[in-house]
Write a structure and sequence with these properties.
The chain is of the alpha/beta class. Helix 16 (about 490-500) runs antiparallel to helix 18. The chain has helices at about 35-50, 55-70, 75-85, 90-115, 155-165, 180-190, 205-215, 225-235, 260-270, 290-305, 325-340, 375, 390-400, 415-420, 460-465, 490-500, 510, 515-525, and strands at about 10, 15-20, 25-30, 120, 130-140, 140-145, 170, 200, 220, 240-245, 250-255, 280-290, 345, 365, 385-390, 405, 405-410, 430, 450, 455, 465-475. The chain folds into three domains: about 35-245 and about 460-470, Aldehyde Dehydrogenase, Chain A, domain 1; about 250-445, 3-Layer(aba) Sandwich (Aldehyde Dehydrogenase, Chain A, domain 2); about 485-525, no CATH class. The longest helix is centred in the first third of the chain and has 26 residues, at about 90-115. About 40% of the residues lie in helices and about 20% in strands. The strands form five sheets. It has a seven-stranded mixed β-sheet with strand order 13-14-15-12-11-17-18, sandwiched between helices.
């Protein structure tokens, strides 16, 4: 996500959370120091060993208890999310609460199977009485530094996965949405999670920096590329591994055979949901020249129909942006685009009828190109630039012309074509005739390539980021000493040459030809002991 100017007010020990739509105070939270962070990590580490000794079913019981609390208090939680982040209450339910309810159920039910010890096929070594398997153990204490754009869904998903894997968690929520982070901790406390297993350290960038520099067992960070680099640099000093989700500049390709009505609706939702403040938002739309006029006209019409109010208004499609800093980034990108020749088809500025909040109209641009900031840098706001292409090769080239690679979408009635194009796009997730929402699918991995980050969250790949694989190898025929042990003799050397020529082929028949030599080597070794 893009960097933003902090809009909270800090006292000596508190941060004040403000509703970005109204400026009203939502709540206050402690401004945690580096010492506070260190104490939180100590408490988490002390609690983790007993937690890791529990069965998956015992851990799942707590997660499912928390799920029931979320379900019963859904409206209250959604309103809190809306007030802190600015998004509509309906969107808080649809894009934050629904996916996490599904994720909690999935990992509570499936982690036992997903982390089941795995037997390794070791080939011909198995015929020699050997076996190998991998077992998965929790890392210990996971530090989570979460963003403001999805203050419930992103950290809660990572917390659930970390806890189910047997870890403890220290969570640092965004300074713009601290009350949502505290509500997550309160929910798990009421669900019966033992004390210390989920520590929340609220604060500003100094608090996040302290967590990144501390001795934890992994850092999971979601945020800007610039901050992600600083997190990685700090973690490298203690050799702490990191998972970094650093945003995107996600392309949408609309081919001439696409369902134009569906693609236009998807583009509007994909670009303007959460006021465009999603790492997977459509930030570049490439449309085939043959259908561009029809597609663009429908996009403009659908955009004009959107209703913009405070997120708590019952008819709100778009709420406020989360910070004045992010609002200014959008305005800067639009000024640059217009100066370079882009045309504003709808929107283009702050709404005149909404005062006192961080609102920006949903905006559609035409005549854009890759010299413009709006096509190069992460805008992270309600802006949809539309550009045309002539053929498949050009579409792929334009989509890949970015430092980012988080998600992309391809729109065509020819699914075979869609899959073919998807394999050539440089993005962690490529969707065919779908857009934006796959972060909400618990079973699928989430993460990008290039400057969109390192590692994965969600799915089995995400769960594997939260455990350490341990290899256990067993010799079931210990009474027979290995033929490659000391002492080396001419007979041993000749056998080793045979192993190179025959055993290393992987063929059992070839290996059987070595049986006489191996028997002689056994006898030779026994005669020397």
């Amino acid at each position: 996500m893009s960097a933003q100017t902090t809009t909270y007010t800090a006292t000596l020990r508190d941060i004040i959370s403000l509703d970005p739509a109204t400026g009203e105070e939502v709540g206050r939270a402690t401004l945690c120091s580096a010492e506070d962070v260190a104490h939180a990590i100590e408490r988490a580490r002390a609690a983790q060993k007993a937690w890791s000794a529990l069965t998956f079913r015992e851990r799942a019981r707590v997660v499912l208890n928390a799920r029931e609390l979320v379900l019963s208090e859904m409206d209250e939680i959604a309103r809190l999310i809306s007030r802190e982040s600015g998004k509509p209450v309906a969107e808080a339910v649809a894009m934050e609460i629904v996916p996490t309810l599904d994720l909690m159920r999935y990992f509570a039910r499936r982690t036992t199977r997903l982390l089941k010890p795995e037997k390794i096929d070791i080939g011909l070594y198995g015929l020699m009485g050997r076996s190998s398997r991998v077992v998965y153990r929790p890392l210990g204490v996971i530090g989570i530094i979460s963003p403001w754009n999805f203050p419930w869904a992103i950290p809660l998903g990572e917390v659930v996965m970390a806890l189910m894997a047997g870890n403890a968690v220290v969570l640092k929520p965004s300074e713009l949405t601290p009350m949502v982070g505290l509500r997550i901790a309160e929910t798990f406390r009421r669900a019966g999670l033992p004390e210390g297993l989920l520590e929340v350290v609220t604060g500003d960038g100094t608090t996040g920096a302290a967590l990144a520099a501390a001795v934890v067992d992994k850092i999971m960070f979601t945020g800007s590329v610039a901050t992600g680099r600083r997190v990685a640099e700090a973690a490298a000093k203690t050799l702490t591994p990191v998972v970094l989700e650093l945003g995107g500049k996600d392309p949408m390709i609309v081919f001439e055979d696409a369902d134009i009505e569906a693609a236009a609706s998807a583009a509007v939702w994909g670009a303007f949901a959460n006021s465009g403040q999603a790492c997977a938002s459509v930030e570049r739309c490439y449309v085939h020249t043959r259908v561009a006029p029809q597609f663009t006209a429908r996009v403009v019409e659908k955009t004009r129909a959107l209703r913009q109010h405070a997120g708590t208004h019952p008819d709100s499609d778009l709420g406020a942006m989360s910070s004045v800093g992010q609002l200014r980034t959008v305005e800067e990108h639009l000024r640059d685009a217009v100066t370079r020749g882009a045309r504003v088809l709808v929107g283009g500025g702050r709404p005149l009828d909404l005062h006192g909040g961080h609102f920006h109209q949903p905006t559609v641009l035409a005549d854009v190109d890759h010299t413009m900031m709006v096509m190069r840098e992460e805008t992270f706001g309600p802006v949809l630039p539309v550009m045309t292409f002539a053929d498949e090769a050009e579409a792929i080239s334009l989509a890949n012309d970015s430092l980012f690679g988080l998600t992309a979408s391809v729109w065509t009635r020819d699914v075979r074509r869609g899959r073919r194009v998807a394999t050539r796009i440089e993005a962690g997730t490529v969707m065919v005739n779908e857009v934006l929402y796959t972060h909400g699918i618990a079973q699928t991995p989430w993460g990008g390539v290039k400057q969109s980050g390192i590692g994965r969250t969600h799915g089995r790949l995400g769960l594997m980021e939260l455990v350490a694989p341990y290899h256990i190898h067993v010799n079931h025929l210990a009474r027979f000493e290995d033929v490659w042990w000391f002492n080396y003799t001419p007979r041993a050397t000749e056998l080793f040459r045979g192993l190179a020529r025959r055993f290393a082929t992987g063929s059992a028949w070839q290996t059987l030809l070595l049986a006489p030599q191996m028997m002689k080597r056994f006898i030779e070794r026994r005669s020397k002991t």
